[in-house]
Structures are given as C-alpha cells and as structure tokens.
Queue: 2 jobs
Job 1
Amino acid sequence: MAAAAFKVPTFEILSTAQMQELLNGTDSASTKKSIKFGFAKFEAFLGLKQIELGEITTDRLRLDDVLCTFYSSLRREDGSWYSKKTMQVIRYGVQRHFLDLHNFDIRDKATFSQSVRMFKAVLVKLKKEGKGSTKHKPAISSSDMEIIQNSSVLDCDTPAGLQNKVFVDFMTYFCNRGRENLRELKPDDFRLETDEDGLRYITKRDQLTKNNREDDDEVSNNGVMYEIPGSSKCPVESFMQFVSKLNKDCPFLWQKPKAKKPEDGDNWYCNAPVGKNTMGNKMKQISQKAGCSKLYTNHCLRATCITTLDRAGFESRDIQSVSGHHSEQSLRNYCNTSHERKKQMSSHLGSHLYEKRNITLPSATQSVPDPGPGPGPSRPNRAYSMHTTRQPLEIVVPDRDSDNVDVHVNSHQQLSFSLSQEKVHQDLSTTSNTFQIHDCVVNIYNN
C-alpha cells in the first residue's frame, strides 16, 4: 500500500524588522504621531539635563525620579502649562516607548510610585489653573443646522454645493471622525441596497479607523443612510447624483469641483482629488460661508450624530455600532448637557432667587381638555390645547380692559386656558403680568 502523501505546510519566516513593521501597523497614523510627539518631549528634557537614555532605562529607581522632574517641568514655549489632554499624550508617548522596546510600563504604581503620584498632582494643578477639562467638539445646534441646510452652500445644482451636501450627509450618517480616511475614499467603497420594504439605502465598506483596528464587528462603523422618499433633501438621491457627476478618470470620491456645471451635464469635477487639508477644513468653510453663529469642524458632525441619537433615546450599544466606540464612557464625552438646557436651568434658578412670584412649571407636550368656565360671569370661551417643550412655561395676563381669561393647571401638570373668540388675536400690553405656575388650579379674571 502506497504511503499517503504528506502535505508540508508553507511558512514565510519574517525578520525582526518585518515583524516590528507588522506590529506598527496596528496603530493609526494619529496614534503614531502622538507617540512621536510625546517621546520627543522626553528626549529634549533628557538633553537639557544631560541624562543618557540608556542609563535610566536599566535603572528603574532613577527613571522614576527623572519622570517626576519631567512631569513637573513640562511647559509650552510661552511658559504656560500644557492642557490635561496634552499632558496625557506626552506621557503616553513615553509609556509606549518603554513598553514597546523594553517591556515595562511607567504607569506601574509599584515600580514607579513617585512619578505616578507626581503626574496625578500635575493634573490636579492643571484643574486649579482651569486647564483640567477636555474641550470636546460641540454638536451643531438646530438653528445653525437649519441655516446650513437652507443656504446656497448646499445647493445641489452646483458642483461645489452638491459635494458639500453629500459631505454633510456622509459625515453625519456614518459618524466619520474628523478628516479620518476622507482623502482615501472611493465611490466603490459604497453600495446601494434595497430592504424588504423597497426602500433604498447606502452602506459603506468597513475601513481601518482609530477605534476599529482589527476584525471586530461589534465596534465597526456600520451606519446606513436611508432614502427619504419625496424629499428634495433625500441623502440617497443626492449621493447617487453626486457619483454620476464624478470624473471617471479620477478614482477618488472627493474631486475638485469645477467653477460651474458643464452645459453637457457630465463631469462636474476635475481629474484631481481634493487636498487632505481642504477636506480637513471643509466643515469650517461650510459653516463660515453659510453664516452660522460659530465655526464648526468636521468632527462637529460626528458629535451631531451621536448627540442627536442619544437625545432621541437610542441605546448606547446601538450608537456604538455606528460610531465605532468601544465603551459607553467614550460616548458620554459627546452626550453632555446642551447649552440650551443649561440656559433653561439658569432661568429656573433665577426665577427662584429673584422673582418670587414666578414658579416654574415643568411642562410637557399634552393636549388638554377645556376646563370649563370658572366661578366668574359666564362668557363664550374657546379652549386651546398647548404644545410645549421642557422650557419653563409663562402665562401672560392681559390688562384689565382685556376679556376674561381662564387658566387651569391640574395635579398632572396639564395646562389649558380660554379666551373669548374675539380676543384671540389681541396684542397683549407690554405692562402685562407674567406668571409661571405648577401643581395647582388657578382661575384668573381681569374685571
């Protein structure tokens, strides 16, 4: 009986340098930049103090002492303190150097107890100096988003406007991070699909990102962009129109737009990609040209995506499937209390402190039945249902020559009021009284 053939496995033995190159590929470009920046600061400090790196690498006790002095001495060129975020980036660069090349961690409290304590003390100092908080990019406010959407900057009848419209849609629906992978995007990175209800939607091929460095479906950016049938703002229609107008000789998605669309209707874009810096500053240019209240960055669109979904009540795990975040804690950086909400809170506190006649009504969206006439003289009344937000609700009472006003608030914090038919459109006097009411029944008459 012939011996069974034995299949020899094939291997490619990599050199040490090749294996290191493979390991380096696990870090994003921004991470590599942070490591280089942080360790360069440490090398500059060692040069100033005339300390050899090799000497302290083998002497952990001395390295601990050197790190103490290093952390406490770090300053900007103008002599001011670095921010908390920058300090963390610098320490991370030093940490990764020793971890990658010498296999020990400078954050180990047992070995580097003094420098760990010193770093924490520096962060406390920064907090006292007002540099302890991290400034996260804000979400675009509803009013500014309306300004952007209604401006000519997003005019789909022009090459630049159509590109801007698709850019805003893409960054928001797919929760893209700043300028990450923008320059490398190609039309075939996207697919047009149709669901069981016949609705079209766009999906994007998974890419290496800052958070998604390996095959982990749970943290991949799996956002989808659905069509809005019948809407002139439909993101799918805009995207399909945009792709159809691209220059076929250029493989990239973001191509330089022509000054005006050609008369033949084809090739709205040049055979040249938009520059990396231009793409990185695109949202800043859009918000400036649209006339927004502030300049927004590309990352603000990512913050807008996360904040909007969070306030709509979507679960953190669902938002993570779009944003690519690994933890809920990371999402909380985007889902802080909005400025508008803080404004309402300040108004509430001001009413409590300085306007004793005003008591805030925590309002809700409710349809309230007619409470019926009060104990005063009977008059023909008209009931109104009120749509309110969570803002404090004010009731303005007309002058004495106004008609009868009935106000009713029940224990469930529902509110309704009645005005006579002929007084509905009456302008209220500037000297009218203002009341904020809750948890009671009130009938007001101006006789």
Job 2
Amino acid sequence: MNKDNKFNFTEERLRKIEPAATGKRAYYYDQSTAGLRLTVTDKGGKSFQVQAWSPVKQKAMISTIGKWPSVPLHEARSRAARLLVEVRDGIDPLQQKRQRRAEMTIAEVADIFMQEHSKPNKKSWRDDECRLNKRIIPDFGVRKMSDLSPEDVRRWHSGLVSSGLSRTTANRYLEVLSGLYTVVLPKMENPCVGIKHYREVQRDRFLSQDEVQRLFASLEAEQDEDIRDYILLSLFIGARRANIQAMRWGDIDFNLQQWCIPFDQSKSGSAMLIPLVVEALDVLERRKAATASVFVFPGKGKTGHLVDLRRSWRRILNHAGIDDFHLHDLRRTLGSWQAITGASLHVIGRSLGHKSTAATSVYARLSKEPVQNAMQTAVSALIQVASMPAEEKVVKITVNKK
C-alpha cells in the first residue's frame, strides 16, 4: 500500500484529494478507523467504503457507506465501526441492504438512484430527474421494487408512445427505470430486461435557406435580448445547450478568440477549446459591456444562469413559421452548413467537440485556424442567406476548398 494513501482523514484533507487518473480509481485509507477507505473516481467523485474480512464467507467484503461530503467523516467512521462488528459476527451487510431495498417503493429507490449515482456521476442527471418526476414516479412510485413485472413494463413502455411521446423518448424512460434495478439493486431480477426498444431514427434536422431567413427575421423582432443572443450564439458556436447556458466570462479569451469549456462541464470529460467567429465575438462583447454577472446569460434560479427556454423558443419558432425544430438542431445546423460550404468531416467534428476514438489522433493534429475558418465560412453563409431579399429563394453559396 502506498504510504501517501494512508493517513488520518480530516474533512480538509479529503477536500484536497484530486481526481484519479483517467479511467482509474484511487483508494485512500483512514489510519484512525480500521477498514474505512475513500474511493475516488477520475471525475472527482468520492465515496466512503468499509473493507472487512468475513469469517463466514472466508473472504474480504466491501460495503459502501455513502458519498462524501453528503456523508460527513464523523458519520462514516461511526457507521464503519458498526459494520465491522456486524461482519465479524457473521452478518452480511450487503445482503441486508439488498433485502431492505427490495421492499422499498420505486419512489424511495429513485431517490437513492439520484443521490448516490446520477447526481455524483452524470452531467445529464437533470434528465434522469425529469424523467423520474414526470412519468416513472407518478406511474409506479408507490409500488415495491419486487412487485413490478415485465408485462407491467412492456405495457407502460408502449403506453408512453400511445400518449404522444416519441419512440426515442420512450426508450430513454425505459433506460432510467431499468437503471433503478441495475444500479441500486443489481442482484434483483430486472423486469426491464428483455423489453424491446423501439427503433430509433437518427435526427438529421437543420435549417434550410428559407428557414434561416425566417428565423433571423423572427429574432430581429424578438424583444427579449437574452433569448435572442442565446439563440444566435447557439447557431454561431454550435456548442451544446447546457454549455452555452452556463457559459462564464472567465472562460472566454477575447484576445485568442476562443472559449474554454471546463472538463467538468464537457460531455467528453475533457476541457474543450471552441473557436469564436466574428459574429459570436460581437454578441459577447456587447453583452459583457452590459452585465456584471459571472455568467454570460445570468438567471434568477439556483444555478445563477439561464435554464428554461422552451416557452421563448416556441414563441420564436411560431413567429418564424418553423415546425419540428429543436434547440439542439441549431448545433446540427452549424455542422451541416460547414459541410455545405466545403469543410471536412474531421474539421466539423473538431468544431462541434465530437470525441471519436477513430478520429482522436486527427483532431489532435488540427490547429485552431482551419476549424475557425470553417466555422466562419459557414456562419458567413448563414448571414448572407438571412440578409438576402425575401423574394429570392436560393443564394449561391461559396465553397471553401482550402
């Protein structure tokens, strides 16, 4: 055991522990409490565990106490001492936990799932929370985990589509319900196993030339400057919705004309440098002169930044007469217009922050300049289309062959 990994735990020392190496876990052991250890993931998540020898099973047993700092150190030490006594007396704490959870309701297990798994480990935890609160808990919350049958799940999954949800959305709901079993009760029979997913068609929606004109006209008439600027930046930058909502001034370098998305906010788990085209810089410089907030798009909620745009987005689309178009489709529009104006797939992938094992080495060799040039060419084409006379339906787009 590495001596640096064994010391007297204090809240301050636990706070200073860095994330483990990528793809690894690191273990730290408390000199003050036998068997107590802290497991640290490469994302920085920290969990207390007890490691003890079972005389009944004749092997070491590991039982998770909970996440730090939700479980404070003094409580972890107290629970570790109790668990050690139980294991030495022949009691299996893991089996006891499984039995207790099997008799819990789906709503109770959903809370454990969110607190111990989704929130500490997933950037998309709000999606899980939304799906649990919208359909899973209202439909199944009072039922015990052991009561749900495969036929119950099959009918429910089918009913989601019958109620108007898309097949893709129904599949996401099924995956969250299944996760309650696989994550919280991995030894229990999962009633979601064997339920056939609906076939999903990859979405390829992006703005046509005519729709570009109508969207820009709608934005010009929009009174809410925050919403208008948010949509323009989404189109000019092509970043993910949540990243733009949480954009901070401290991550923007106006001199280098780039925006750094921190690793803990990036879907890929790595920091991302996004080139900023002239039009994006114009929007940002205007906003910076008018706000004292740390966020580019400040909000009044708990996050401190803009969060819910659905009502405003529907208003803008209705005014523009555009149907079946999601906020995420703005990101796809930038990528599509880069392709239309001659950018390579590797450059497009780099500009959108795609992480592909096949293309990683190629991305690594790409400097910012060709990526920024491709983005600028695409945005300039969009602006050209948006500003042409309404009676003109097609504009000749110059293809950048560099």
